[in-house]
């Protein structure tokens, strides 16, 4: 059974649009490049042909990846942000540190410029789920060290974008 991927509606729509573009326009464009390169002659020493075939392989890999994400996507609703959940931006203050670090908790496909993405399946991601602003959360790092963070803020992606404008 495939793992569910939690995505915001905006990320889902963006990925679906990219998938649809690649299977239509993208495939036609790469087919044209391959055909043009074939017309140049001997394929064994044809750099344009090999480059186009490599590009085609990468594109087909991306199409398969996107199709799986779309198929296994669960759309998360942000609504009122009282607790940490997938698809939100969380501001954390590490124990002994004065700075607040912000992370997007979600899939790498949710990426937001200027923020690192934290997987909800990571030790810290798991520990943060369902906690509120002001909560201090402890978690074990992969090396076994115990760390604590205080949740300073919880923002939706829309709130973050408005704040950055």
Brief rundown of the structure:
The protein is α/β, with parallel strands linked by helices and 165 residues long. The protein has helices at residues 9-38, 47-71, 123-128, 157-164, and strands at 5-7, 73-75, 89-94, 100-105, 116-118, 136-140, 146-155.
What report would you give on this structure?
- The protein has helices at 9-38, 47-71, 123-128, 157-164; strands at residues 5-7, 73-75, 89-94, 100-105, 116-118, 136-140, 146-155.
- It is of the alpha/beta class and 165 residues long.
- It is elongated, with a radius of gyration of 21 Å.
- It is built from four helices and seven strands.
- The strands form two sheets. The chain has a five-stranded mixed sheet. Strands 1-2 form a two-stranded parallel ribbon.
- It has two domains: 5-75, Orthogonal Bundle (Helix Hairpins); 89-164, Chitinase A, domain 3.
- The model has no long low-confidence stretch (mean pLDDT 88).
- Helix 1 (9-38) runs antiparallel to helix 2 (47-71).
Number of strands: 7
Shape: elongated
Helix/strand-derived class?
alpha/beta
Overall CATH class of the largest domain: Alpha Beta
**Termini Cα gap:** 41 Å
Explain the layout of strands and helices.
Elements: E1 5-7, H1 9-38, H2 47-71, E2 73-75, E3 89-94, E4 100-105, E5 116-118, H3 123-128, E6 136-140, E7 146-155, H4 157-164
Parallel strand pairs: 1-2, 4-5
Antiparallel strand pairs: 3-4, 3-7, 6-7
